[in-house]
Amino acid sequence: MLTIFTIPKPFKGHIDLIQRNAIKSWLKIQPQCEVILFGDEEGVSEAAAEFNILNIREIKKNEFGTPLLDSVFNSAQKIAKNKILVYINTDDVLMGDFMPAIQKIDKSLFLLSGQRWDMDTKEAIQFDKIDWEEKLRDDIIKNGRIHRPSGMDYCVFPRHLEHKLPPLAVGRPGWDNWLIYRAKSLKIPVIDATETVTVVHQNHPSIYHPLGKEAKINFKLAGGFTHMMTLRDADWVLTARGLERPPFPRRIFSLISLFYPWRLLLALKRKLQSGTYNKNS
């Protein structure tokens, strides 16, 4: 079984709707997963009580009051009841393909993630309807858009993974890209599950400025773009047949991206693409 942990925003307005959709979807997974909500934002403890799940209120925050991922990951690894952990943003819906995909992994140490589907959600998902997943998939095809490989909203890993995350702020850029770099540098297999796992990110307005102080602090703590990688750098692709190697050109790209001169060029490219590099900001 899995332990899913997350750091919710305050349960207010539209955020309340999409976070409830997400949590309910996780509780539909079979075999049933342990779910842990971290933080003391408005409505978190009430939601935990309502869904009969664990709430860990005491977490470390930065000077802006934003939760820090290293403390949450460390706490989850200590208290989780299960050997496999899933960190996921609280606006992401999981479906029935999630558990079967994880069960295909036969490695003792790994980091798994995948691209998400971005979609507007204005109503509560009717999980009591037998065809809720079918309707959601139809909606994805009509209205969804797959996110680029540089932005991941979830990761799956064994509890004993030594991530050594810096004190990066949740919801700000860079932490997921740094985690892939960390795994690659330790020769831990990175698995791209985009082909087999459908994760639906329910769109919402951003609450921070992409060129703001917290984003800059995250990039600095992570070591800059030379210490960040994306799903294009994955060692394996999870397919319906199991784990397969990526296409040869992608494997070559991933290999040379570990070498410093090439990493500098990639870092410059990613700065320009992300829009986070601005001398006047």
Rounded to the nearest angstrom, the distance between the terminal CA atoms is: 45 Å
Protein structure class? alpha/beta
What is the CATH homology-level superfamily?
Spore Coat Polysaccharide Biosynthesis Protein SpsA, Chain A
Count of helical regions: 9
Q: What is the helix/strand order?
A: EHEHEHEEHEEHEEHEEHEEHH
Q: Beta-sheet strand percentage? A: 15-25%
Question: What name does the CATH topology carry?
Answer: Spore Coat Polysaccharide Biosynthesis Protein SpsA, Chain A
Q: Roughly how many Å is the radius of gyration? A: 18 Å
Return the CATH architecture.
Answer: Alpha-Beta Complex
Oligomer: single chain
What's the number of structural domains?
Answer: 1
Total strand segments: 13
Biggest beta sheet attributes: 5 strands, mixed
Supply the CATH class: Alpha Beta
